[in-house]
Amino acid sequence: MTHVVKLAIGSLIVGILVLGLKTLAWRMTGSIALLSDAMESIVNVATAIVALVAIRVAAIPADANHPYGHHKAEFLSAVLEGVMIIIAALLILREAYHGFLAPMPLDAPLNGLAVNVGASLLNAFWCWILITRGRLLRSPALVADGRHLLTDVVSSIGVTAGVLLAISTGWSVLDPLLAALVAVNILWSGWKVMSTSLSGLLDESVSDETLATVKAVISAEASGAVEAHDLRTRHAGQVTFIDFHLVVTGETTVAAAHDICDRIETALHRVVPDSRVSIHVEPEHKAKHSGIVVL
């Protein structure tokens, strides 16, 4: 079992535990704001299941029908998470609307808030784990899950502060107002998760920093070649695809050109983990004099 899969399973377990605690907090208080917090946790559990399935699918080796692998399954997972986050926000707005029409006093609010704070602390810890480890393991599904949890933590902090304010002032209308603000924050979170994942589905190039690193490696390791041009990159889950044309002199043998390609590929694999490199070798008259200069 890979580290990514273990983290995905951990997210599911933490999500179920946090959902139980937040549901208990809502039942103790009757707060619509705390209900909104609990409803977001339902989405957390659902997205954790989706992320786990997507990660397992993405790990399936390439086959005849999917020669480039199944890595984009993680991006599909993140898009689905964004959709589910938006649906949760709309449901919360519905509850907030009814709360505005008929504000209700809160029951045992301090005890309920204490339970909710405990759930939020657990979420905060796991959010940090998912984002840091997800970036290290290059897993879009884990990072998306972590960012979603981060918005949940921020929402919980606002809800806690707001419910305390409602208790101290006696303004029951603050409870549904907070729920509505939480919903708006969740909508923004859902959009960010979806937009980030769509870039991967649309074969967006790697970051400028990674692209500069790739160019520098090719320039340094292509000794014996004339130039490299038509560099293209894209990322799919944990995998980065890199392809370009390498121009060699007419005197270069096939074996020598192959050695240059091997040297470049080895160096790229070292600086860009999980990369897939394709190099098309061309004769000297194909040089464009506008690509990567070989040192």
Short description:
The chain has 8 helices and 4 strands.
Describe the structure.
The chain is of the alpha+beta class and 295 residues long. It folds into 2 domains: 3-201, Up-down Bundle (Alpha-lytic protease prodomain-like), CATH 1.20.1510; 208-293, Alpha-Beta Plaits, CATH 3.30.70.1350. The protein is 68% helix and 10% strand. The chain has 8 helices and 4 strands, in the order H-H-H-H-H-H-H-E-E-H-E-E. A 4-stranded mixed sheet has the order 3-2-1-4. A hairpin with a 2-residue loop joins strand 1 and strand 2. Helix 1 runs antiparallel to helix 4, helix 2 (32-58) runs antiparallel to helix 3 (73-101) and helix 3 packs antiparallel against helix 6 (174-201). The longest helix has 30 residues, at 140-169. It is elongated and about 85 Å long.
Number of strands: 4
CATH architecture of the largest domain: Up-down Bundle
The dominant shape is elongated
Look up the CATH topology of the largest domain: Alpha-lytic protease prodomain-like
Question: What is the strand arrangement across the widest sheet?
Answer: 3-2-1-4
Transmembrane segments: 7-29, 41-61, 73-93, 113-132, 153-171
Keywords: Cell membrane, Membrane, Transmembrane, Transmembrane helix, Transport
Subcellular location: Cell membrane
Membrane topology: Multi-pass membrane protein
